[in-house]
Structure formats: structure tokens, C-alpha cells
Amino acid sequence: MTDATDGVLHTLFGSDQHPDQGGHEQVVLCQDRASGLKAVIAIHSTALGPALGGTRFYPYATEDEAFTDALNLARGMSYKNAMAGLDHGGGKAVIIGDPERIKSEELLLAYGRCVASLGGRYVTACDVGTYVADMDVVARECRWTTGRSPENGGAGDSSVLTAFGVFQGMRASAQHLWGAPSLRGRTVGIAGVGKVGHHLVGHLLEDGARVVVTDVREESVRRVTTAHPEVEVVSGTDELIRRPGLDVYAPCALGGALDDDTVPVLTATVVCGAANNQLAHPGVEKDLADRGILYAPDYVVNSGGVIQVADELRGFDFERCRAKAAKIFDTTLDIFARAKADGIPPAAAADRLAEQRIADAAARHRVPR
């Protein structure tokens, strides 16, 4: 069906109308010609509560590419929120276009109206291409907005706790593989040192690790090396993943970092990073396991940010959030133990645990999964 609200066009699909959704409850296509807004909001599940997930602003090559990304990201948020112990389902939004060229106050306000029209089924936040200041604008039209600035009643930058959570996942990986929860003396390669990767560098250096970085943005690399001159820089991800002596590979940019080309040449024995949807396709998790590479499921270790924005809805308390994010260490260890016991890769073990929590909640509330 279609419905026009404040100049924003909504097209809603139920999973029975669009079988390619993979069980998603709802997909919303938003368009506002005056501002240039063209966006997709995907709600995968509300079994555990209102869907929660960020807004990605990216110059997708095609609308189909944006649609697919929204669906995959929303599903990942369902699993992430379930494993983080949050009373939220999974959702995600993507705004199509180059944020450097088309982002404007008018466009963000139109997007806020689109989110508001869902009546709280979807709660939005920051993601790639969107920032705290953007959420402040969106919140002027939509009260279901998190990741706002402290001056506007929000928690501020969620990348701080995202990086802290990834670091906890690395500590758990080290405990499982090497017998001690520390990266001291290990070499960690980080691909992408923007929001999250920059903070992760600091945690690792403080823990005594050697850090190697790469990023397509020279200014991001320069910011890291200015603050931490001891950090090594390589020319690109291909050089990073092939680097001799690499212990941990941390993908912290866009998804799909682990594919048929990268896994065979990866020198690290642990993969643990902040990027969403790191596995390019089903089967990559087995390829990693077959090579003896320990994979810390991305949506488990990078959940510190969503823990923060969820807490914002109840009145943000940083220490409460940090304590909850610290539990990522235990959750990651539990997943490794479950994977070993069941004889399956950690990604499959995490999926089973998340799916069980969602299914249990769906059965209790009798809502679609």
C-alpha cells in the first residue's frame, strides 16, 4: 500500500508480498522530492521490542543495492540486539546518496518525518555517513531518535563504547586462543580508523599491542599517527591482511571484508572487528574455521554502540552502559564454548543463540519473527 505523509512517500511491503525479504516484517521506501530524500527503512523483527538500528547515508550504485543492504543490516541488528540482551528488535535505514553532496537540514527533517510515521516501531540512530548533529536534526521531527548530543538530551558519540566492546571481544578471543585476556605483544591490524577504529587503537596500545592501520581516508590515518606516532601504516587492506606476523585482523569499515579472495591469504589467526556483515556470503565462516582462524561474530563484539543508544531511551548513564558493554567479553567466550561443544563455527553458534531468543519472544508475544 502507499501513503503520503508530509511529502514523504511510503511503500510498505509485508513479507508475504515480497519473498526476497527473508522474513522481514516491514520495508518502507521513503521519498521526498523537495529535499532529494530517497531512503529505505527495513524492520526485521519486533519480537523483542521496537526495532532499533542506525541510519546509513551512502552513495549506493543502485536502488537494489541499497534495498539489499538495508535488509541485511536490519537482520543483523535483530541478532545483535538479541545477543546484547536488549529488549529491542532489529531495524536499519539507508539514505541513498553522497552525504557530502546532498545531506541537508531539509532532507534530514523529511527523513525524521518518515521515521515518525512508523509510530515507534523503528528507533533510529547514527551509522556510516550520519553523526550526532544529524540525529539532533532528525529528532526535531521524530521522538524515536537516539544518538543525539548531550545538549539535546542524548548520549553523544556511540563509537566510544562500540570500540570498547570490540576490544572486549578481542580480549575474549585472546583468552580462548592463547590463554590470557590480553593483546600484549600481539600485532593487530585495523582496516578503517574512522569513528570506531580510532578509539580501538587507543585501547590496544594501552594493552601493550602493536598496531598496524590502513584507511582509504588519509585524514583518518593522519589523525591516528599524530596521536600515536608508534602506529604502523600500510597502503591498503590487501597489504594489511597479507602482513607477516599479524595476529588479529580488525575490519572496522564497511561490510563484506571476509570473502573468497581475502580468507585464503589472511595471515591473522583471529578476526575481530567493528564492521557489520563482515562475512560476504554463507560459507565464509566455515572457510575461516577450516583455516584455523577464530572469528568473533561481528554483531556480538560491535554491540557496544547499540547498548549505548538503547540506554539513551531510559536516561543515559555512561557507567551503566560501560558495565553492560564489558559483558561482551563473557558473551564472546560463551559463543566460543558453544561452538566448540556443537562442532560448529562461532558465527553459527551466535546465530543459534540469537535465533532462539527471538523465537522464544515471538512465541510469547505471538508476533512475526
From TrEMBL:
It catalyses: L-valine + NAD(+) + H2O = 3-methyl-2-oxobutanoate + NH4(+) + NADH + H(+). NAD(+) binds at residues 192-197. Pathway: Amino-acid degradation; L-valine degradation. InterPro entries: Aminoacid_DH-like_N_sf, Glu/Leu/Phe/Val/Trp_DH, Glu/Leu/Phe/Val/Trp_DH_C, Glu/Leu/Phe/Val/Trp_DH_dimer, Glu/Leu/Phe/Val_DH_AS, Glu/Phe/Leu/Val/Trp_DH_bac/arc, NAD(P)-bd_dom_sf. Keywords: Branched-chain amino acid catabolism, Cytoplasm, NAD, Nucleotide-binding, Oxidoreductase. It is an enzyme of class 1 (oxidoreductase). GO terms for biological process: branched-chain amino acid catabolic process. Residues 156-366 form the Glutamate/phenylalanine/leucine/valine/L-tryptophan dehydrogenase C-terminal domain. Pfam families: ELFV_dehydrog, ELFV_dehydrog_N. Its EC number is 1.4.1.23. It is found in: Cytoplasm. The keyword Zinc does not apply. The active site is at residue 92. Residues 1-24 are annotated as: Disordered. Signal peptide: none annotated. GO terms for cellular component: cytoplasm. The keyword Glycosyltransferase does not apply. One of its GO terms (molecular function) is valine dehydrogenase (NAD+) activity. Belongs to the Glu/Leu/Phe/Val dehydrogenases family. Homodimer. This is Valine dehydrogenase. The lineage of its organism: Bacteria, Bacillati, Actinomycetota, Actinomycetes, Kitasatosporales. The gene is vdh.
